[in-house]
Specification:
single chain; 129 residues; mainly alpha; MROH2B-like_N_HEAT; Maestro_heat-like_prot; MROH1 protein
């Protein structure tokens, strides 16, 4: 998975395809490996993190009926945190666009998801002067 940091788009695509292919035969193993890799590389640049997250999404979509309930629960929280981190990283340069997108998650009369609030807090910290 370290090759996801390669600047060549073809290499990145090959890594994505390999993860998806391996996920067809061993979905839970690949999901756990990707999850562990993302945990160990929490400073991984967001474009590279996205490659792994997209591969994980593809594996889940293709094998949803085979996944154990505990695997799904763990992954949901990890994905939400990873997605929040990606938004915060992008928000360090494009704060207005990220804020526009996150604000769409606020609906009158409905409490926002906890990760929406977490993303706002992290954006504030990352962009504080």
């Amino acid at each position: 998975m370290d090759a996801t940091t390669d600047k060549d788009a073809l290499v990145q695509e090959q890594i994505y395809n390999a993860l998806c292919s391996l996920g067809e035969s061993e979905p839970e193993e690949i999901l756990h490996c990707c999850d562990e890799y993302l945990r160990q590389h929490d400073k991984l640049a967001y474009p590279h993190r996205v490659i792994i997250l997209k591969a994980m999404e593809s594996v889940v979509r293709s094998n949803i009926s085979l996944l154990d309930k505990s695997t799904a629960k763990e992954l949901i929280q990890e994905w939400q945190q990873a997605a929040s981190s990606v938004l915060v990283a992008v928000g360090q340069r494009f704060i207005n666009k990220v804020m526009e997108e996150v604000l769409t998650k606020f609906q009158p009369g409905i409490l926002p998801h906890c990760f929406v609030l977490q993303t706002f807090a992290d954006l504030a910290v990352a962009n504080g002067q």
